[in-house]
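Quick one, T. Sequence first:
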Amino acid sequence: MFVKHLNENWRKQNVRTTYMAKTGEVKRNWYVVDATDIPLGRLSSVVASVLRGKNKPTFTPHTDTGDFVIVINADKIKLTGNKADGKIYYRHSNYPGGLKSVTAGELRAKNSRRLIENSVKGMLPKNTLGRQQLTKLHVYGGAEHNHAAQQPEVLDLTNLI
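Structure tokens:
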């Protein structure tokens, strides 16, 4: 009888539960990333990680715990190797013969925002949570952005890349 009582108290003292963040408890920060001369894949992996919230100790896989990210100077992103000519993006209009293709260099010249958005989108989960996290990404071709009121912090990529 004494041993049973001792074991019950031991269980109550050593209960450890995993912390699960709730949507209302998450504090979201705003970060600015300058994409000048940074390789596309390196930038996209860091941005996707921040959008998911994997840089926080409160990361929960099934909850959106990520921060907002503003990417500026998307026109000056670096494509290494032969990616400007060799990397091809495809899309289809669902009509016969409706396959469209564009190279990464052409897409950077025409719409550099879409180049970064597609790259980050590919690194997020393919479900409603991933689509929700992608709405926190804001990409601008130049150095100006419309989010000065949120007082974004500069995200230093030198130690993350």
